[in-house]
Amino acid sequence: MNNYLLVSGILAVVLCVVHSVAGELIIIGPIQKVEGLPPAFGSPALTRMTLRFAWHVTSVFGIGIAAILFRLGQQTAHSPSDIMTLRILSATFLASFAVALIGSRAKHPSWPVFLLMAILTWCGAGTLGF
Prior knowledge:
By secondary structure, this protein is mainly alpha-helical. The chain has one domain (3-124). Helices cover 76% and strands 0% of the residues. It contains four helices and no strands. The protein has helices spanning 3-32, 44-73, 80-103, 110-124.
């Protein structure tokens, strides 16, 4: 078992659950009550639906990434293809860290989680050097 990847997968699940629940309560729910939203694809109702499903589909993708981390975390050795997949995921987490850090001016709580996931996933690939 690869604990780096398992912990990274757990962080991904926690991040996704918090994203969906807190986002629904703090952002998406209140937006549903706002009048005067732009009529995306024809109507404000469709704008509301699009915002809601787009918000939650992000969490669905994150759960899928967590599943990949859990699957690879169960292995004791990784193929070159697995290592490349893990490096891509690590780079994705690192980019997400940068976007969250810079975009929110370090006010959004996701940036340290993304940074930790990037480090854990990189270490889990078995390569500490670049």
